[in-house]
Amino acid sequence: MATKRDPHALLPLTPAMFYVLVALADGLTHGYAIMKEVEQLTSGAVRLSTGTLYGIIKRLLSEGLIRESAARAADADDRRRSYELTPFGREVARAEAARLEQTLAIARRKPLFRRP
Predict the structure, then answer these.
(1) Of the residues 18, 40, 60, 115, which has the maximum number of CB atoms within 10 A of its CB?
(2) Under 8 Å between Cβ of 59 and 21
(3) Can you give the pLDDT at residue 30?
(4) Region 28-57 average pLDDT
(5) First CA to last CA distance, the chain
(6) What number of CA atoms fall less than 13 Å from residue 81's CA on the CB side?
(7) What are the tens digits of pLDDT across the range 13-36?
(8) What residues contact 89, with CB distance under 8 A and at least 6 apart?
(9) Is 15 exposed, middle or buried (0-12, 13-18, 19+ CB in 10 A)?
(10) What are the angstrom distances between the C-alpha of 103 and each of 9, 20, 40, 82, 110?
(11) Residues 57, 20: contact at Cβ < 8 Å?
């Protein structure tokens, strides 16, 4: 029987890695669509270069957070590889989101957000 991996062992994620996982939350997606989704999610604040994206994809694949799919995303042509979250990848993304929420809750208890 395989040992269950702890999603918290991979935290914290880099912001770019987290955005890529979030972009894949809707389902099967190809690389270019991931880049566009990250840009849209962040209102243009994060624009991943092709090299950065594929470096992230390589790491996420090696960690078992995403997998390349034999199926193609609906808007992908035959040359584009499509990716999807694994169940473990979804767990890691949820754990990172919870960690970020907790971090923000801590900051909100301090006078950072109050006007002097």
Answers:
(1) 60
(2) no
(3) 92
(4) 96
(5) 57
(6) 11
(7) 999 999 999 999 999 999 999 999
(8) 21, 24, 60, 64, 65, 66
(9) middle
(10) 17, 20, 24, 33, 12
(11) yes
Identify whether the C-beta of residue 68 lies closer than 8 Å to the C-beta of residue 109: no
Tokens of 22: 């979030």
CA distances from 84 to 3, 22, 28, 102, 103 (A): 22, 11, 5, 27, 28
List the one residue out of 96, 75, 76 whose CA is nearest residue 22: 96
Please report which confidence band the pLDDT of residue 1 belongs to, taking 50, 70 and 90 as the band edges: low
pLDDT in tens, 85-100: 999 999 999 999 999 9
H or E, element range at 61? helix 50-62
- Pair of tokens at residue 27: 């389902």
Rounded Cα gap, residues 105 and 62, in angstroms: 32
